[in-house]
Design brief:
This protein is an all-alpha fold and 573 residues long. Helix content is 73%, strand content 1%.
Length: 573
């Protein structure tokens, strides 16, 4: 660290300046993170424990001891536990099946299993609610008529319904992590165990799975944090039955208070509880990973031996296809069909189909405004985060000043904080309480939240690329007479440009379908696409909500295709 700092000072001296560009970038990084990250988080803590400048824990204590809060906390933990458990098991199973077995059509199925990651879970919840709602679900009504049942056999509006839908959309976190680790694993240990007489299941249980435990743990943590913080699925499936989680209770508390300051303070107190729950999850994951060493790549080019399924091949193929149909095909088809029906509840047959729902949706001024707002907020957040994340990554990896660890933690902290909590902090910070600056009910407050929420995506992408750029390249340019700015522009940035582009799209796509953060921040003229769909559904306009949902799905597919096309030849540095 000292050597790198001394080298940077020496190079700055070559430019004849006492205050180097490195110092300016470091100072700017800290200042921007102070505004984007630190202030909103500080405002949550301050308003939860202080009132009119005096320490007052009574609000926090009253929220903590409220039976409704305790019930919401229990639902949050219970749902997250089961989603993480079953989602991890499902992700590991299909990762092993597609990564290490000889099952047919692996390439196609691998792509299909990644599809749920692209689509908003709240659209999946809406689709399953249309199918299995206890009172009016299409499938339930058909089963009652076909078999003469006394009541609906299924009810998706329950805790277990929420668990089922979240599993369907979160298991790819584990699947994508583990399948990559399995394909890169050194097969020597497995082969030695088989030669020594170990059965296949013993090899998988005692060697394969322990070696990919970091990948399993990383994916499981993403599921856990996503489930703990998620708003869309619990609100769509739980509100009607009085089932609340902490994110939905925060939303309900602020909505019932009609945006009053006291209601926002109550939301801040609830946010502290949600942050505590998430923090415990992070600590548990760290303890799991610190228990051992995991070396799965040995530096040799090799591929693990594929396991022959023999008589199990066809049954497992049928199981995989059935799973894909249930989690991918059924919800998508349901959204598109209901978007065509004349009125919600009519049978899904061609004579009841019409395009009037699309006409109504697009004739409403709010639709184009919501699409425009989503495109503006997501693309702007992507561009700003791309440069800001690269700036912070350069400071952390190349300049390496004192306090760089703090800088790195601050940049990734907001993603570990639930989106609902971050929204409360942004409201408290930028609603006029600081310097009279009020962004409330404007698109800018949503943009600020997106910047904080997704900054870590770009920062991590650029950090990985910068670690591959040897310092001698920039130093050679400086020694040849280039200024620091010229060496950055002509040497470093071109080398990491693919990672910067990847970071942009890692932010743009999630922000386009986001609803958890923006549902608390939108104003009369700043609804995003996700909020507009949610509002139409909340108003009982199911066909119109489904029609706009199908438009959102097509928009996401197009954006993903563009991303794939633009990045197909970008191999990084």
């Amino acid at each position: 660290m000292r050597l790198g700092l001394r080298r940077n000072r020496d190079l700055a001296a070559l430019d004849g300046r006492r205050f180097s560009l490195d110092g300016a970038m470091t100072l700017l990084s800290f200042a921007l993170l102070l505004v984007i990250v630190v202030i909103p988080i500080f405002m949550i803590v301050y308003h939860a424990f202080f009132y009119q400048g005096r320490f007052d824990p009574s609000l926090f204590a009253s929220q903590l001891l409220d039976p409704k809060t305790l019930g919401s906390m229990w639902n949050t933990v219970k749902i997250a536990f089961w989603v993480t458990l079953f989602g991890t098991v499902m992700g590991v199973f299909y990762a092993w099946l597609l990564g290490r077995s000889d099952i047919p059509a692996k390439g196609l199925m691998r792509a299909l299993f990644s599809i749920p990651y692209m689509f908003p879970p709240f659209l999946g919840a809406m689709a399953w609610d249309l199918l299995l709602n206890g009172r009016s679900g299409y499938l339930n009504r058909w089963l009652v008529r076909a078999f003469g049942l006394a009541g609906a056999p299924f009810n998706i509006n329950s805790v277990w319904g929420i668990v089922f839908v979240e599993i369907s959309y979160y298991f790819p976190f584990v699947f994508m992590q583990v399948v990559s680790a399995l394909e890169r694993m050194d097969p020597t240990l497995e082969e030695c165990a088989r030669i020594a007489g170990a059965r296949q299941m013993t090899v998988i249980r005692k060697i394969t799975l322990p070696l990919v435990l970091p990948a399993i743990s990383a994916g499981a943590l993403l599921i856990l944090i996503s489930s703990l913080a998620h708003f869309g699925v619990p609100s769509i499936l739980g509100f009607s039955q009085g089932i609340f989680t902490l994110p939905t209770q925060i939303f309900d508390t602020i909505q019932r208070a009609e945006g009053s300051f006291e209601g926002i303070r109550q939301g801040a107190a609830l946010s502290i509880l949600l942050v505590v729950v998430v923090s415990v999850a992070l600590i548990v994951q760290k303890k799991v990973l610190s228990a051992g060493s995991y070396d799965i790549i040995k530096g040799k080019s090799m591929r693990p031996t594929l396991i022959k399924l023999r008589g199990s091949k066809i049954p497992l193929l049928i199981l995989a296809v059935a799973t894909l149909v249930m989690i991918v095909v059924v919800p998508l088809v349901m959204i598109f069909l209901v978007g065509l029906v004349k009125a919600y509840g009519l049978p899904l047959v061609p004579k009841n189909f019409t395009l009037n729902n699309y006409v109504k949706v697009f004739s409403a001024s709010g639709t184009f405004a919501s699409i425009k707002n989503s495109l503006f907020a997501s693309s702007t957040a992507g561009v700003v985060c791309m440069f800001l994340g690269t700036l912070i990554a350069y400071v952390v990896q190349k300049i390496r000043p004192r306090g760089r660890g703090v800088l790195e933690v601050l940049s990734v902290l907001p993603y570990s904080i639930p989106g609902t909590v971050l929204a409360v902090g942004v409201i408290l910070a930028w609603s006029g309480s600081l310097g009279g600056i009020s962004l409330y009910n404007t698109i800018w407050i949503i943009l600020v939240a997106y910047l904080a929420r997704y900054l870590s995506f770009s920062m991590k992408s650029s950090s990985a690329a910068l670690l591959q750029v040897h310092p001698s390249l920039e130093e050679a340019a400086r020694a040849c007479g280039a200024s620091h700015t010229e060496s950055l522009k002509d040497v470093t940035l071109p080398l990491i440009r693919p990672a910067m582009v990847a970071g942009f799209f890692l932010i743009f796509l999630p922000a386009m379908r986001e609803v958890t953060t923006s549902v608390l921040l939108y104003g009369p003229y700043t609804r995003t696409l996700g909020v507009q769909i949610y509002s139409l559904r909340d108003a009982g306009m199911m066909p119109q909500a489904a029609a706009l949902g199908s438009v959102a799905i097509l928009l996401i597919i197009v954006c993903n295709a563009v991303v794939t096309y633009l990045t197909r030849d970008r191999k990084g540095v």
